[in-house]
């Protein structure tokens, strides 16, 4: 470690101790105990703050740390990966990175970013927080290291009798996931993960690049620190500093059991009108069904065995005890199957959170909650992929249903059926407890939607290796996904822009599902930010035409300016400066 690093550590240690002064009880306590909370198990046992992993072929670990979950993204020119073991390690690593590489670095936790914000040819160094994997239960609540995976977190919390309404895909890292919102199968029941967040420990950079450790919370005495906390309730990763730990004063009780059901239909039996009827019922369920219900309506491309399917979960609760789960599922099943007769799933079920095998017609089983976590924890195989998103406040207009039906039941001329077989429009339930929170209380602005759509395409590029560019098929699939999306939202300018929608149907996009097309010319980064954050982006943000929110005091762009004065934290869709 350099002398300068040591000096900075002394400074940051002082900041940690000072951060709590005058703050509310919980903020103060969290701040004082933050460094111990965020130590990773490996580094702690070895007494090291970080490991410097050189990507020159001399260290077998480097290659694995240069590629994301999405095989499209590779940091081919990265020279060093700083594997950090505690908050001080992050501060020291950042110090060295800024001196050696300036702004050409990125931050990584689980490596699941949809776009190349972490792994790209421009960056020379990666601050890797995946070893900050400690989870602690203290007198003040629960602390989850930024490097914990979804799976480890869910299992650890279940041992405590608790749960987190986060995503279920096992390998996603909390570092990027929580600060972007953290939505999952329990979100209709318990809201978003950020709705439970109490404080965040992170390392920020002063204008001259000096690292400073902060624990910020909604109780912080300093208004700027309260703003910084708010920015972490949906403002997303790679924007304000390096997060080392998330703190929760309380968390909801875990369910005891869950019913997981699957209904599959043949595209051959479902014309556009029937698809519209099924989607209408799904929209009603998302709006009105008991909050224990969550549905993943996977509208696959017809090449996926000619079928599409609804996977749904109903968790037990005080209102729906285990013995009533079957009864609770009956009306859901009936409403959907009255429209079109379901069949057995012949093809593997694909889509985020639910990579499952084949299933008999109307399959339905009650699982222990642990088993349910295992059932619906699929991240899918490591492949190449492209994603897009859309929030919806109302049921699908008929023209959108017709277009979705057309795109999903037509084989593109330039792509073979085997290559489109992992392409789908996934319609997830939303709303419920998510919408109990005001759209300005957290940085997540989307608090009126009842469904969240995710356009996904996965493909295998045969005979490829890390760093290979997309081949012709990959490029065609990305184009197909972009074209279908632009067509489906053509009446709003090709994106689900609430400020162009007088009917109040669409409501923008999810920042944790980033899509680089949203900021490509003729659109700008400001246009993309308006879709991701609506009124929370900047003071004169475009809002929904029917927006009822009061003018906001907090804006992500203002907070970005305040907390990243040296403009160090920049990626392909980072929050822009004023
Ligand atoms: C298979 C799969 C399933 C998913 N399922 C869900 C889901 O169910 N619900 C949902 O809401 N989202 C889901 N997502 C999206 C996911 O929430 C985002 O991709 C998230 O940003 C991933 O976080 P990560 O740490 O794994 O990724 P990374 O690629 O490591 O990071 C993502 C972003 O966060 C930044 N970042 C990472 N760590 C830190 C840190 N410690 N401090 C500051 N910034 C950091 C990165 O720089 C980058 O900009 C899924 C993604 C995948 C690939």
From TrEMBL:
Gene3D superfamilies: 3.30.465.10, 3.40.462.20. One of its GO terms (molecular function) is FAD binding. Its cofactor is FAD. SUPFAM superfamilies: FAD-binding/transporter-associated domain-like (SSF56176). Keywords: FAD, Flavoprotein, Oxidoreductase. It is an enzyme of class 1 (oxidoreductase). It comes from the Bacteria. The keyword Repeat does not apply. Pfam families: FAD_binding_4. PANTHER family: BINDING OXIDOREDUCTASE, PUTATIVE (AFU_ORTHOLOGUE AFUA_1G17690)-RELATED, FAD-BINDING PCMH-TYPE DOMAIN-CONTAINING PROTEIN. Belongs to the oxygen-dependent FAD-linked oxidoreductase family. This is Aclacinomycin-N/aclacinomycin-A oxidase. It comes from BD1-7 clade bacterium.
């Amino acid at each position: 470690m350099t002398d300068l690093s040591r000096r900075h550590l002394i400074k940051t240690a002082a900041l940690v101790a000072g951060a709590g002064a005058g703050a509310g009880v919980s903020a103060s306590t969290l701040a004082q105990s933050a460094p111990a909370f965020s130590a990773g198990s490996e580094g702690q046992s070895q007494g090291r703050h970080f490991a410097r992993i050189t990507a020159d072929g001399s260290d077998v670990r480097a290659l694995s740390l240069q590629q994301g979950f999405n095989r499209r993204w590779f940091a081919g020119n990265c020279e060093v990966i700083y594997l950090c073991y505690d908050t001080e390690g992050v501060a020291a690593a950042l110090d060295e990175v800024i001196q050696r590489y300036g702004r050409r670095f990125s931050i990584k936790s689980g490596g699941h970013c949809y776009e190349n914000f972490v792994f790209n040819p421009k960056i020379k160094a990666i601050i890797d927080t995946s070893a900050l994997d400690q989870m602690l239960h203290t007198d003040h609540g629960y602390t989850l290291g930024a490097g914990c995976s979804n799976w480890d977190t869910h299992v650890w919390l279940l041992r405590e009798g608790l749960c987190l309404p986060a995503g279920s895909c096992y390998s996603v890292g909390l570092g990027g996931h929580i600060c972007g919102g953290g939505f999952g199968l329990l979100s209709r029941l318990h809201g978003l993960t950020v709705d439970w967040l109490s404080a965040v420990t992170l390392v920020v950079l002063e204008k001259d690049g000096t690292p400073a450790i902060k624990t910020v919370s909604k109780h912080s005495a300093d208004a700027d620190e309260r703003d910084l906390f708010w920015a972490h309730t949906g403002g997303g990763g790679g924007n304000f500093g390096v997060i080392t730990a998330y703190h929760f004063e309380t968390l909801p009780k875990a369910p005891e059991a869950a019913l997981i059901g699957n209904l599959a239909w043949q595209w051959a039996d479902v014309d556009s009108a029937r698809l519209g009827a099924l989607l209408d019922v799904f929209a009603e369920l998302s709006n009105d069904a008991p909050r224990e219900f969550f549905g993943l309506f996977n509208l696959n491309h017809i090449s996926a065995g000619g079928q599409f399917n609804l996977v749904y979960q109903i968790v037990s609760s005080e209102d729906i005890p285990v013995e009533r789960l079957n009864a609770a599922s009956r009306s859901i099943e009936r409403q959907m199957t009255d429209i079109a007769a379901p069949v057995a799933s012949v093809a593997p079920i694909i889509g985020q959170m639910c990579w499952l095998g084949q299933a008999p017609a109307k399959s339905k089983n009650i699982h222990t909650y642990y088993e349910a976590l295992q059932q619906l924890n699929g991240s899918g195989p490591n492949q190449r992929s492209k994603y897009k998103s859309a929030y919806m406040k109302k049921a699908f207009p008929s023209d959108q249903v017709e277009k979705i039906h057309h795109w999903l039941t037509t084989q593109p001329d330039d792509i073979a059926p085997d290559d489109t077989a992992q392409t789908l429009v996934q319609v997830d339930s939303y709303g419920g407890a998510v919408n109990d929170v005001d759209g300005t209380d957290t940085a997540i602005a989307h608090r009126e939607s009842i469904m969240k759509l995710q356009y996904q395409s996965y493909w295998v590029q045969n005979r490829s290796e890390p760093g290979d560019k997309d081949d012709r098929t990959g490029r065609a699939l990305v184009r197909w996904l972009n074209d279908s999306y632009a067509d489906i939202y053509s009446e709003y300018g090709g994106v689900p822009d609430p400020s162009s929608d007088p009917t109040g149907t669409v409501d923008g996009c999810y920042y944790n599902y980033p899509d680089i097309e949203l900021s490509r010319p003729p659109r700008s980064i400001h246009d993309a930010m308006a879709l991701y954050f609506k009124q929370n982006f900047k003071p004169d943000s475009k809002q929904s035409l029917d927006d009822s929110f009061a003018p906001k005091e907090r804006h992500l762009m203002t907070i970005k300016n305040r907390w990243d004065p040296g403009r160090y934290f920049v990626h392909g869709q980072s929050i822009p400066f004023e």
